[in-house]
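Please check this one:

***
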Amino acid sequence: MADREKYLGDMDFVKIPYAGLLSKEYARERRTLIDMSKASLELRPGTPEKFMRSTDAVQRDVHVHLEGDADHYGDTSYIAVIDKQHNMVGFEPSLHSGFGTGVVVGDLGFMFTCRGDYYSLTPGEPNALEPGKRPRSTLQSTLVLKDGQPYLLIGSPGADDQIQRTMQTLLNILDFGMNVQQAIEAPRWSTRAFPASPFPHTMYPGDLSVEASIPEVVWKVLTARGHKLRVARDWTLGANAAILLDPRTGVLNAGVDPRTEGYAWAK
């Protein structure tokens, strides 16, 4: 998320060092920053350009806002569809917050979103407001391939929380061997320890929420390591949905989150 602040913006306006950001070498370097004994309370962007053929460093400042009350949540829907030919579509229609701007377009019946508040108002930042520039987005419908073939379609509503719960569900499937529904229903965590996408982009260092079904002994260990822990009620940390294509049988396995009014339909 620190690298997001430093690098991510409309590519018509800013250069993003994707090759470095996605390199194994950069991942190894970043991994050394993880201290298993204490929570990180800092925002520490890296320098992925070191691992690219072009060594031109991107000179950008990162500004952390600790004041204000920006939330990390949004008003979005997620839909995943796979047909009998196994064509896959995932999309996330979003107004960003409830009823968007509240401005309806004439008598057409739809309204403007309010995603303009994702812009930074600090000149020079990659997501800074400029004429003709698109704001950064949190939407992240995800298609997972296995051996070059479609394997999993997954996504979530929820602004900055989207990638967190999608990642948790994905790891539950790949690393912990859960089926789709088990992976979605498993107890969740969420953090706001990075700059929020909505203005004023408040960062809450050390913030961590866990659902109450995570054992209390875990709460105590997390608190001892410096996390500013909040215990949320069960079944309250967001929503997720997914469809998994079993490569052996071709059977589709759909899962939906009981935390929301979602449905898994087969026809």
